[in-house]
Amino acid sequence: MGGGSNTKPGGVTGVSQVIVPVQIATPDAEGRIFHEVKAGQSFWAIAVAYKITINDLEVWNNLSRENKLQIGQKLFIPDSNTKGYSTPTPVGMIQIATPDADGRIVHSVQAYNTLITIADAYGVKVDKILANNGLQVDWPLQIGQKLIIDPGNLPPADSSPVDPYREAHPCERW
Question: What CATH number does domain 16-82 carry, 3.10.350.10, 3.60.15.10, 1.10.760.10, 3.50.50.60?
């Protein structure tokens, strides 16, 4: 066997197995951040350090995870001030709606929202959300659906008991 092989155990060639912490770069004169890749840094480590996603790194730098990062490579790091960039809401996190002038709170359902997570986020019971919106617990939520969390200072709707027979037979006179 030739002694010139640079293959390490596990078939990895010439790649450092040391993980290097990512030091956050300072913004340039225009406020843009460019990260210079150091040995041992990965897409994941860089994304975590800057609180962005690996997808953000790929999209904003025209890269793919299949491309290897190169030592010295400069990566643009988008942030909340970058035009066209918005940080996605983490899965399961609820964006709380603020009350309007009458104290009414309306939540717009987002992906991955459930009645339980919405109720927990607002500190109310699922039953209250169901009652405020005339929903059944087994009805699915729709993205963009508006849910009344708190009707605020508006007078309550007529709370007289509903006769299911009358609802099913509205043409009969009583």
Answer: 3.10.350.10
